[in-house]
Amino acid sequence: MIRIPRSALLLGFAGLIPFLWGAVTLLIPQTYDLSLARLGPRFMGQYVLNFYGTIVLAFMSGVLWGFATRAEGRVAQLGYALSMLPVLWAFFTVGGGPDSSLVFLIAGYAGLLGLDWLFWRQGLAPPWWMALRVPLTLIVVLCLFIGLL
Predict the structure, then answer these.
(1) Whether the Cβ atoms of residue 5 and residue 128 lie closer than 8 Å to each other
(2) Where are the transmembrane segments (predicted)?
(3) What is each CA distance from 66 to 5, 71, 119, 125, in whole angstroms?
């Protein structure tokens, strides 16, 4: 079994908090009301799922770009090009309405997991990368899906 570094594991799961909170505010009306009263509409429901989901998808492009720096020649060129796909996907697809944006984000995260796997398979990502990315992606997609209910 490959051990995920503790800091990567903790920070990865901490990064799920806004996704989880967005889903919780949709599933439990009291948290929705609490969030609206204390935090404002930007930190609840579909809004936080769309907003934070877009930011993280763009951030992951930067992570993949960093992996591409470990390659050379044509592999590096392809890695840089592929690393731009998540941010371009978010830019061109998110924003047409809350429901359609969530659908596009779900597709974006599914595609990102495929890119994660490609970079990992090429040896550009750490050996533990997929052990971290699979559960994180499943939780993110589940939260985004809850936003569609």
Answers:
(1) yes
(2) 7-28, 48-68, 131-148
(3) 18, 10, 11, 9
Whether residue 116 is contained in a domain is answered as yes
Q: Is residue 140 part of a domain?
A: yes
pLDDT at 1 over 70: no
CB burial of residue 6 (10 Å; 0-12, 13-18, 19+): exposed
In whole angstroms, what is the distance from residue 64 CA to residue 124 CA?
9
Range with the lowest mean pLDDT among 55-59, 95-99, 124-128?
Answer: 95-99
CA distance 31 to 22: 10
Tens of pLDDT, residues 27-48: 998 998 888 888 888 889 999 9
The number of domains in the chain is 1
